[in-house]
Amino acid sequence: MAVCLQKCGKMRPLLLPDGFVCGVDEAGRGPLAGPVVAAAVILDPQNPIPGLNDSKKLSAKRREALALEIRAKALAWSVAEASVEEIDRINILQASLLAMRRAVEGLAIRPERAVIDGNRCPQLDCPAEAIVGGDGKVASIAAASILAKTVRDAGMLLLHADYPMYGFDRHMGYPTAFHLQALRQHGASPVHRRSYAPVAQLSLL
What we know:
By secondary structure, the protein is an alpha/beta fold. It has helices at 60-73, 84-90, 92-105, 139-162, 168-171, 177-186, 197-202; strands at residues 4-7, 10-13, 21-27, 36-42, 76-82, 113-117, 128-131.
C-alpha cells in the first residue's frame, strides 16, 4: 500500500518496491461555475518538497510557490479537467472521477499504483486506493491538490475577464452571497453549472 504517514506535522513518504505511485486529487466540486480540475503527481523520493499540505490549508502565495516546485521536482505530473457541460450531463461525482482518470492517463510515467483523495476511485489501468483526508496525509496527494487548485484558480481568473459581473476573481465560483446576488441579477452564464440547484433556481428569478 502506498501511503505517507503524517507525524509531528510532517509527511513522510514510504518507499515501495512495487514501482511508481501517483497521488491524485481534484479541485472544484463545490463551485457553481467552471470546470472541475484534477491532478496526478509522482513525486521523486530523492528530491523531497518540504511544506506539502492540503491546498485548502495553504495561502494562495504559498500554493503558487509550491506548484512551481512540484512541476520542477516531481518525476511526473499531469493536470486535466471535466467541463461544465460534462458536469451537467453526468453529475459532479462522475465528472470528478473522469477528470482524475484523465490526469492519471496524462502522466509521462505509467504508475504502478494510485492513491486518491476521498472515498471513491476512478477507473484506472492500475490498482487504486481511496484515502479519506489523503491531501493532509499523503505527500503526493497533497502535491496533486496544490496543482489542481492553482490551475483551477488561474482558469477562473480567465473566466472573470469574460464575465466580470459575477466576481469569479473573488470567490472562484463558490456560492457566496455576492455570487448568488449576481446570479439573481444577471442569470446564469455559459460557464455556470445549470444542473446545480442554486443556479437553476436563481437564474429563473
